[in-house]
């Protein structure tokens, strides 16, 4: 394999299965010709129906788009049929979404391929998969502030049936925070790359930054309040637990610091549906201690996965029928 990597950034690394098939000398049949012939260069040998794996690593040093190629040398000739295009984009963002999935639909439907321009695939997609109607499906990812001195405020612009937790919050310099997004729909619905935006701004606190604690809308303050209720014989009235959302620290927004992060959400919320080939299973008459089997078919006719379990009905009864035994003398 030959890696064409003019500007650097790409690395090709063989796995253990590759190293086991890597040779530095001829491995053909023993002959005088082979014994006297010195090996030209190391090579990889794959026998019939064998396979091996490689890792392609992208490690950019600058915020730029890089391209490369991997060519396969078969014998002494490059194979025109085997050409792997490598595309990567190095970025240096102050605010990132981490732990997301590759948007395969964007990669497959990218119209720029027709223009011989390959775009790097964005990793800004969450696939919920199949979700039963009325039940929550949750996914978690991370947001990160990569700056050294700036405090950032984030706010997700999302409505039902999607919920973000936390939806609003602060990120101190060099800090990260886990975000949980929940899909819960009371009606059947399908989402394909539903766009949700996160508004991000830089802020300045009124107090010194070291004196301001972390904050988001999921943080709360617990206090105990006196009530008018009092137990018989008690000297003090009962106290009631009060839970309130922690107030957002006072701050001002830095001018011209607003930016948006995009996140795509996909999922299907629907009722599970199925069909049975029969509703009555008639077993043949069976002698005691013998076994009889019957087969029927269950078919998932819905759009989501079908989860099921079998249990015996509470009102079912075993009907015992008399039987006779003929004695043979």
Automatic annotation (TrEMBL):
Cited InterPro entries: Hydin-like (IPR033305), Ig-like_fold (IPR013783)
Superkingdom, taxonomy of origin: Eukaryota
Gene Ontology BP terms: axonemal central apparatus assembly; cilium movement
Annotated GO CC locations: axoneme
Protein name: HYDIN protein
Taxonomic path: Eukaryota, Metazoa, Chordata, Craniata, Vertebrata
């Amino acid at each position: 394999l030959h890696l064409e990597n003019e500007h650097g950034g790409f690395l090709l690394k063989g796995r253990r299965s590759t190293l086991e098939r890597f040779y530095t000398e001829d491995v053909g049949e023993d002959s005088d010709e082979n014994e006297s012939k010195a090996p030209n260069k190391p090579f990889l040998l794959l026998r019939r129906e064998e396979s091996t794996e490689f890792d392609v690593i992208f490690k950019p040093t600058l915020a730029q788009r890089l391209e490369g190629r991997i060519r396969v040398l078969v014998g002494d000739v490059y194979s025109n049929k085997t050409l792997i295009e490598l595309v990567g984009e190095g970025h240096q963002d102050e605010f990132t979404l981490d732990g997301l999935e590759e948007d395969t639909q964007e990669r497959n439907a990218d119209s720029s391929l027709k223009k011989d321009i390959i775009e790097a695939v964005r990793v800004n997609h969450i696939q919920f998969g199949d979700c039963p109607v009325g039940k929550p499906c949750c996914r978690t990812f991370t947001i990160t502030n990569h700056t050294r001195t700036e405090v950032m405020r984030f706010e997700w612009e999302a409505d039902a049936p999607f919920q973000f937790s936390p939806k609003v919050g602060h990120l101190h310099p060099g800090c990260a925070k886990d975000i949980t997004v929940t899909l819960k729909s009371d009606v059947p619905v399908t989402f394909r790359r539903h766009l949700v935006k996160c508004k991000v701004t830089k802020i300045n606190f009124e107090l010194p930054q070291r004196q301001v604690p972390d904050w988001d809308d999921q943080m709360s303050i617990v206090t105990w309040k006196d009530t008018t209720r009092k137990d018989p014989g008690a000297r003090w009235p009962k106290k009631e637990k009060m839970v309130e959302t922690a107030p957002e620290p006072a701050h001002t927004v830095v001018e011209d610091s607003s930016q948006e992060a995009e996140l795509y959400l996909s999922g299907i919320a629907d009722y599970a549906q199925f069909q049975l080939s029969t509703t009555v299973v008639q077993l043949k008459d069976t002698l005691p201690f013998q076994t009889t089997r019957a087969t029927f078919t269950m078919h998932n006719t819905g759009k989501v996965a079908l989860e099921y379990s079998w249990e015996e009905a509470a009102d079912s009864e075993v009907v015992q029928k008399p039987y006779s035994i003929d004695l043979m003398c």
